[in-house]
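Format notes (please read before filing issues)

Several people have asked whether sequences and structure tokens are stored in separate files. They are not. Every record keeps both together, in the order shown below: the sequence lines, then the token lines. Line labels are part of the format and must not be stripped during preprocessing.
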Amino acid sequence: MFDEFTFSRHDFTTTIKPFDCGDTDINEFFLKDAVDYLRQLLAITYFFENQDRTIVFFSVLNDRISDYDSDKGIFRKIKGKIPHKKHRRSYPAVKVGRFGVDHQFHKQGVGTEVMRFIKQFFISSNMTGCRYITIDAYKQSSGFYKKNGFEFLTSKDQSDKTRAMYFDLMNLVIKL
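Then the structure lines:
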């Protein structure tokens, strides 16, 4: 699927091709705010494009999963998968801070393919330790993330606009 797209990292000189995912907040981040996040060392934005449009983008930043931020039972489950000598109160993660697929490419499997790409990217090309991927999913998008193997991190945010979710990269490493 990606053979026809170019993969790039957003930088200070990037010329952005047209993009509209249908969500004003996400569009504005990609079209206006991503470079400011880069300048402040807060997030890095990557994108796929074809000759005419930006197809999909995602921004990533450092994060963690901690006993403070998750339900006790969920954190015990997370901790239980890590060898006892390595038990900590928090574990390294990368957060997908923003994720958007251009509306012309909705319902074509692009989002799922890019999620697979992100997971593989952080297994093979990561420059720091990173066991988990986290995301604050809009409620209307939580089904997409569940379909892509993410689990809820807490029940405390059930009435919030977004839900904290996580994916354990070791689920893929074990399968390799």
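For reference, the curators noted about this record: The chain has a mean pLDDT of 92. The chain has one domain: 2-173.
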